[in-house]
Amino acid sequence: MKRSLPVDLSLVLSLATVLGMAMAVAGRWPAHELLGALLAPGLALVYLAGGLPTAWRAVSELWRAHVLDIDLLMIAAAIAAAVVGAPFEGAVLLTLFSISTTLEERALGRARRAIEALMALRPETALRRTAGGAVEEVAAGELAIGDVVVLRPGARVPTDGVITAGRGGIDEANITGESMPVSKEAGAQVFEATVNLDGVMDMTVTKTVGDSTIARMIRLVTEAQAARAPSERFSEWFGQRYTVVVMAGAVIAFAAFWGLGREWEQALYRAATLLVAASPCAIVISVPAAILSALSAAARGGVLFKGGAALETLAAVDTFAFDKTGTLTNGRAEVTRVVALDGDEARFLSLLAGLEAGSEHHIAAAIAREVRARGLEVAKVVDATARPGFGILGRDEDGPLWAGNPYLAEEMGARIDRHELRALADTAQTVVYLGRGQRVLGAVCVADEARPSSAAALAALRRGGVRRIVMMTGDRRPVALRIGGELGLAPDEIHAGMLPEDKVRRIAELTRDGKVAFVGDGVNDAAALARADVGIAMGAAGSEVALQAADVALLSEDMERLADAHRLSRRASAVIRQNLVFAIGAMLLLVTGGLFFDLPLPLAVIGHEGGTVLVVLNGLRLLSDPIRRPKPRG
Ligand code: ADP
Ligand code: MG
């Protein structure tokens, strides 16, 4: 429902109406003549305070959007009550209506304010190094890409950047929801609004404040809250059609009661009662109350839903497909073996690292770490182009180079038949070959490990009723079997050797018998994320691709939050169901009472407004749902 009044104003109005009510009650039992004399002005006050703003809202809505607002039903009922000489009943109606509107507004406001909390975390100023080497304080909004900023202990990082000097622990709870500090040194990414706990560091700005991760989070959550979920669209559509039906129904009921021989006053009173009893306030508010609360609870735990639709679809998912590398595994792979066919490991590794320097793949990062640990130079390689799912191509002064898996070797016409290389084929590790044209120069083995949280998360998903879990990887089958085995996956749930397009095709097949979620890390799997009913990106804080392609973004690397998010989505849809059943049930009961049992207007009002408030409160329970919240820090 459109509520345009500021909360505090409507609170004042409610208080005024309560005051009026007290006078009205005193007037009903005329113990005191003075109170009796105050009755009429008291009632008039209630009608003015409670009715005028509502009428204004309803009429402007009718004028602006040609929408018959539910508020209009309330006004009509109150006026009808006054006309037939039951102004006290009308006053009760207007009072309770104002109070419940205020309560709803407060509740929904609380759910919406998660976003303001995010804003408050953003620092306003930064310490920027000037060309002369001095440090000046500037507004964070003035920072430009490439500026060098000094991070002092205890201060918040002013925008996204990369550490260039110093080291220290950073509390990233604001972004990822993770309460353990992360230690950072040169080369590490840092995010706006995270807290530098100790250490003095220099960072180079990589994103302006308008583009930072937290800025995008805020945009996402705001858009998510504005977007309508399918069931929400339904309840809105229903509310509008239904208001017309109720209006017409009340007119017919009036005619029928009158025709059946009642006094016209009595017929009008009963029609007004029906109008209130049949109003769909509770039905219309039940869905947004639940969805807003769930979206906010999730955002606080570092899980961003791009809208209520994603929340509702996730609840219906019964197949989860996981990417392996960087998703189920931790993405901190390690080089475990190096085979250089000409015997010169240092030159071989430096060439490989030079080529991989242009890649964002976890394998590339592992190779870079190895080369740094060995203190080797990185060879100069240009024109690097990724071949997603295969490897990478490039060129140095001696000509073109490639690095990748056996598929890529085959494509290059290179044969992996030397016995030093064939020995690698059996390992349960990823093997990366480096070659120049048809000649293979050597290979490295890269081992990655399942994330500690993966096994628990998969188990929790199964407990939560997920029917099928599959792993999809472009890696070789032995590696996939080893990791899958550690996570408790059966061999037929493990699909290896898949190219990015194979993943997309397989997901399309899976969607034929049920809703499918794909969980990836945004490296090579944006297409699969987009194809699934719900695309979920892990560790999205640093990855733009993942944030864009996914419907749900897990900012942290903690897989168990995925299970939490799934559970939350199921709870939200259960709450929505409860609310709808309750609201429709209560309405039927009240309408039956109004039609056949002479239900008095005040009772209809209490039932109707009480039901609306209950439904909102029930939705609000989701707000405190524990997607594990980090302990607050000083
Ligand atoms: P996953 O599906 O497990 O996330 P990818 O689709 O990202 O894996 O990659 C599949 C395979 O392609 C990897 O196991 C690796 O053999 C090869 N590959 C991809 N990118 C690279 C790269 N930059 N360097 C070397 N090999 C790569
Ligand atoms: Mg991957």
Indicate the topology.
Blueprint: H1 7-28, H2 33-65, H3 70-83, H4 87-112, H5 114-120, E1 125-129, E2 135-139, E3 148-151, E4 161-165, E5 168-171, H6 173-176, E6 182-184, E7 189-190, E8 195-196, E9 201-205, H7 213-226, H8 230-259, H9 264-278, H10 281-300, E10 303-305, H11 308-316, E11 317-323, H12 324-328, E12 334-340, H13 345-356, H14 362-373, E13 382-387, E14 391-396, E15 399-404, H15 406-411, H16 419-422, E16 430-436, E17 439-447, H17 452-463, E18 468-472, H18 477-486, E19 494-495, H19 500-510, E20 515-520, H20 526-531, E21 534-537, H21 544-549, E22 552-554, H22 560-596, H23 601-620
Parallel strand pairs: 11-18, 11-20, 18-19, 20-21, 21-22
Antiparallel strand pairs: 1-2, 1-3, 3-9, 4-7, 4-9, 5-6, 5-8, 10-22, 12-17, 13-14, 14-15, 15-16, 16-17
Helix pairs in contact: 1-2, 1-4, 2-3, 2-4, 3-4, 3-9, 4-10, 4-23, 8-9, 8-10, 9-22, 9-23, 10-22, 10-23, 11-22, 13-14, 17-22, 22-23
Organism: Paracoccus aminovorans
Domain P-type ATPase A: 121-221
GO biological process, one term: metal ion transport
Shape: elongated
Mean pLDDT across all amino acids: 83
Strand content: 15-25%
Q: Mind telling me the C-alpha Rg? A: 32 Å
* Number of β-strand runs: 22
Number of H- or I-type helical stretches: 23
Low-confidence regions: 1-8, 629-634
User: Roughly how much helix do the residues carry, as a percent range?
Assistant: 40-55%
Strand order of the biggest β-sheet: 10-22-21-20-11-18-19
Could you give the distance between the termini? 39 Å
Main sheet overview: 7 strands, mixed
Give a list of the ligands: adenosine-5'-diphosphate, magnesium ion
Helix/strand structural class: alpha+beta
Total domain modules: 4
Pfam families: E1-E2_ATPase, Hydrolase
Subcellular location: Cell membrane; Membrane
GO cellular component, one term: plasma membrane
Main location: membrane
